[in-house]
Amino acid sequence: MSIHPKIAEVTDRIRLRSEKTRSLYLRRLEAAKKAGPRRAGLACGNLAHGFAACGVEDKANLKGDVVPNIGIITAYNDMLSAHQPYESYPELIRQAAREAGGVAQVAGGVPAMCDGVTQGQTGMELSLFSRDAIAMAAAIGLSHNMFDAALFLGICDKIVPGLMIAALSFGHLPTIFVPAGPMTSGMPNDEKARIRQLYAEGKVGRAELLEAESASYHGPGTCTFYGTANTNQMMMEIMGLHLPGASFVNPNTPLRDALTKAATKRALAITALGNEFTPIGEIVDEKVIVNGVVGLNATGGSTNHTMHLVAMAKAAGIQLTWDDFSDLSDVTPLLTRVYPNGVADVNHFHAAGGMSFLIRELLQAGYLHDDVKTVWGNGLSAYTVEPKLDEAGAIVWSEGATTSLDEKVLAPVSKAFSVSGGLKVLSGNIGRGVIKISAVKPERRFIEAPAKVFHTQEDLQHAFKAGELNGDFVAVIRFQGPKANGMPELHKLTPTLGVLQDRGHRVALVTDGRMSGASGKVPAAIHVTPEAVDGGPIAKIRDGDLIRLDAEAGTFEVLIDEAVFAARPAVTLDLSENEFGLGRELFHLFRANAESAELGAGVF
User: Fold this and answer.
1) In whole angstroms, how far apart are CA 193 and each of 52, 68, 188, 500, 506?
2) Cα separation of 223 and 131, whole Å?
3) Does the residue 40 lie in any domain?
4) Looking at the keywords, is Cell membrane present (predicted)?
5) In a domain, 499, yes or no
6) Is 54 known as a binding-site position?
7) 435: three-class secondary structure by DSSP
8) pLDDT at 438
9) How many of the other CB atoms lie within 10 Å of CB of 19?
C-alpha cells in the first residue's frame, strides 16, 4: 500500500526543515562509528578498572575487541510498580549474553520518579526536568566507552524519553529498549474515576478512596490506563525499538523473561562485530519519527509526547513541530478506546489484537512508513507478528491477529472511532496550546464562557469546596510552565472539573501547565506558550474575560478588543516559593534555561 499523501507531505517537510541539523548529526554519528568502543586500545589501568568486578570468563572476553559487550542502563527501583520488575533483568541479560558468546555489564542507573506518587505534591515540580536528568545520567553510564551495544530498561513517563535522548546522543551504538509490561487488570478505570469524583464531592471518605486506588494500582507493572507510560511502550514498538510484540506482556511471566533474553541476543547480533550493524541513530530518521506521531494519534495517546517527541527528534537532528502533530492528526484515524478514551485498559487492548493488529491496519491503509530500519531488521511489516512460547519454552513469532477480537477496544481502519486522531493544536490571542479531544464528547468541544483565574490547582479546589464555582466558566491556571515551576501535571483538577461538568455546567481548562495522558472528558487547552512567566498573553487574562475555545477549529481566544488586550499589562507573580524544598533548589538552572513547551521544554 502506498503511503497516504498527507503522511508523505509532512515527512518531506520535516526532512527539508531538518536537512542541516540532521546532516550534522549523521556526520558526528559516522565519526563515532569509526572511532568505536576501542577497549583493547584503552590504557591497561583504564581497562582493568572496567572489568575488575567481572568473573574470570568475562574478564578474558573483555581484554580484546572480539567479544561484544552490552551496556545496561537501568531505571530499576523497588518502590515503583513499573520499574520493580527490572530487579531481575541484569542477571537474565548476563546469562543470555554469555549463551550467545557475549558479555553484559550494568553501565549505570538512572532515576525513575512516579507522577502517580508526586501528583499534586511539591515533588511533581521535578518531574518534567527528570527527563533531562535521566538523559545525562544515562550518558554518564555509557561514557566509559566499553560497549558495543546498549539495552535500556525503563518504561514510565519521563524515563523512556530521557533514555531516548541519551541513546541518540550515543547514536553509533545499537540500542534496544526492553519493557517490563503492564500490571494485570485491577479495579476498572471507570469505577476508579467514579469514586474519585464521589470523593471530590465529599460523598465518600479517604478510606473508601484509598481502597479504590489500591485495587486499581495493585501489583508490579505499569498502571493499566493509557497514560504516558503505556504510550511510551506503544511508541517504542511502532518506531521499531522494541522486539515485535514486547510492549504489553505482563511482568514476571515466562514470555516476559523470554523476550528479555531475546532482546539481549538481538542486541549482540546487531553490533559492528557482526553482519547486521544497526546503530540507533540510523534507525531514528524522519520516517520513524512520523510513525511515532501517527501511532500517538491513532491510539489517542499522551499529550506529554507533544513535548517529548519534539525533544527526542531534536536529539537525532530532526526538527518536529506542533503543526506536524496537528496535520498528521487530521488524517490519522483513531483506532483504540482505552481509558481515559474508553473503559478498557491496556491488557484488553493487548488481548484484542494489540500492537501487531494496530501496525498491520495502519500499514495496509498507508498511514505508516514500512521502508524503515528497526532493531528487528528492515521494514515495519515485521512487527505484525506476535511472540509466543512453544512446548519447549522457546520463543517463536507467528502472524498476529488479522481481525480485532474486540472492536469496542481496537477497531480496524474501516470502522475507526474517528476519522482523525486525538490531538489538536490551538492558536489564538492566548498563544498556542495543545488539546486532547479523543476523550471529549463532540458537544463539549466548543465553549464560550467567562474566565476564572487561579495560580494553583489548590486555589481552584478551595473555590470549589467553598461553593464558588457555579455556572459556566473557563478555569485559567497559569504560572505552571517549565520556567515557572517545572510544569507539574494538574490532575487534581480532573475530578473537580468532572463533577462540575456532570452537574450540567459547561467548563474547560486553559493552562500553561500539563495534564498529560490521563486527560479526560473535560476540554483542556494545555502547554500554553508563551507561558505566563515569560509575559505570555495568558498572563493578561482577568476574571470575567469571555473566552472562546473551539477544539474542532483549533482556536482559543479572549473576546475583548484587540488593542485593549494588547495594551493590558501582564500579571507578575512572586515565584520564590518554587525555588526551594524537596530538591527544587538543585533544578534552578533547568527552570532558568528551559525552552518552551512547543520546543520540547528541555535544556539541551
Assistant:
1) 52, 49, 9, 14, 19
2) 19
3) no
4) no
5) yes
6) no
7) strand
8) 82
9) 12
CA atoms of 567 and 96, how far apart (whole Å): 66
Distance (Å) of CA 429 to CA 487, 506, 563, 592: 22, 22, 11, 25
Secondary structure of residue 364 in the 3-state scheme:
helix
**Cis preceding-peptide flag for 340 (omega within 30 of 0):** yes
Per the CB < 8 A criterion, the answer to whether 484 and 452 are in contact is no
* Domains contained in the chain, number: 2
Phi and psi (nearest 5°) for 531? -75, 165
Q: How many CA atoms lie within 13 A of 102 on its CB side?
A: 27
Q: Please check whether residue 394 lies inside any domain of the structure.
A: yes
> Is 156 annotated as contributing to ligand binding?
yes
Same domain, 350 and 428: no
Phi, psi angle pair for 167, to nearest 5°: -60, -40
> Hey, what amino acid is at 579?
E
Q: Identify the band that residue 492 occupies on the pLDDT scale cut at 50, 70 and 90.
A: confident
> pLDDT tens-digit profile of 417-431?
999 987 899 999 999
Whether 61 maps to a domain, the answer reads no
Inter-CA distances, 7 with 131, 246, 331, 553, Å: 29, 26, 8, 21
Q: Is the pLDDT of residue 46 over 60?
A: yes
Residue 472 sits in the same domain as residue 338? no
Q: Give yes or no: residues 371 and 505 share one domain.
A: no
DSSP state of 234: H
Domain that holds residue 574: 423-599
- Range of 41-55, 240-254, 482-496 with top mean pLDDT: 240-254
315 and 432 within one domain: no
Same-domain pairing of 542 and 455: yes
Instruction: At 261, give phi and psi (nearest 5°).
Output: -65, -40
- End-to-end C-alpha distance for the chain, whole angstroms: 38
- What per-residue confidence (pLDDT) applies to 365? 98
Q: Which helix (H) or strand (E) holds 93?
A: helix 89-99
Distance between CA atoms of residues 90 and 260, nearest Å: 10
Cell of 99: 549463551
Percentage helix, strand, coil for the chain under 3-state DSSP, each rounded to 5: 45, 15, 40
